[in-house]
Design goal:
The protein is of the alpha/beta class. The chain has helices spanning 13-17, 30-45, 59-71, 98-105, 107-115, 152-167, 183-194, 198-202, 231-242; strands at 2-8, 52-55, 79-81, 176-181, 212-216, 222-227.
Length: 248
């Protein structure tokens, strides 16, 4: 049996403030660090033993992974970071309050910016201080690769080559692989694995710091998938994610 463990990062400082984050590099809150550590405790208790880990360039994901590995006493595991696992770029609405933005533009428009398959938020200028072009960690990227805004379709397009050519291929060597990333980058992986429609993925919410387990046979055919933990608590977390952008 092969296992893929997906974990969305714990609560970030901007999650707590209900701001659009995207590629903005914000840290975890104390609650976020705690829930990440608890995810590791749960994984260890249930006997999961990842052998290889992947995460994004953003500290909220990196530090979530660190907390998980510390709780599992597996800090020694190899970790590969890629910008392709970064969150969707929210363009010019990064840093804006989600509820306030919904009050200004309407729930339906903001839902499209957040969750639609192919609608992009307003774009940043390349030289905007929020642009990845201004961040040295993305110096390797050409201007055409720099996301100034993204739809979920765009996020999947830059994610899938890495997912298929690196993450999936690692199962040739490992039985259990863990990916700690973001709501929309993970949503792209889930859409691919579960064969979800564009409409279905809009409504699908991934809770913070909850291990999402996919089990495959030796030919990598999906056998089952489930969130690990108390199902009622997980349901409440998913509802909380869904309600973030509703206007007050």
């Amino acid at each position: 049996m092969k296992q893929l463990i997906l974990i969305r990062h714990g609560e970030s400082e901007w999650n707590k403030l209900n701001l659009f984050t995207g590629w903005t590099d914000v840290d975890l809150t104390e609650a976020g660090r705690k829930e990440a550590y608890e995810a590791g405790v749960l994984l260890k208790k249930e006997g999961y033993r990842p052998q290889m880990c992947y995460t994004s360039y953003l500290k909220r994901a990196v530090r979530t992974l660190n907390q998980v590995l510390e709780a599992m006493d597996m800090d020694y595991l190899p970790v590969e970071k890629s910008w392709r696992l970064n969150e969707k770029s929210y363009g010019a609405i990064q840093g804006l309050n989600k509820a306030d933005t919904a009050a200004k533009y309407g729930d339906e428009q903001v839902l499209l910016w957040r969750r639609s398959f192919d609608v992009q938020p307003p774009a940043l200028e390349l030289n905007d201080e929020r642009s990845p072009r201004m961040d040295p960690r993305y110096a390797e990227l050409s201007d055409s690769e720099i996301p100034l805004t993204e739809s979920l379709k765009d996020t999947i397009a830059r994610l899938m080559p890495y997912y298929k050519n690196v993450i999936l291929k690692s199962f040739e060597r490992y039985d259990t692989v863990m990916v700690v990333a973001h709501g929309n980058s993970l949503r792209g992986i889930v859409k691919e694995l579960r064969g979800m429609t564009n409409d279905e993925i809009i409504k699908f919410n991934i809770p913070t710091a909850v291990p999402y387990i996919f089990e495959f046979d030796d030919q990598m055919k999906l056998q089952k998938e489930f969130f690990l933990g108390n199902q009622e608590e997980i349901r409440k977390k998913m509802e909380s994610v869904a309600n973030q952008a509703k206007k007050k």
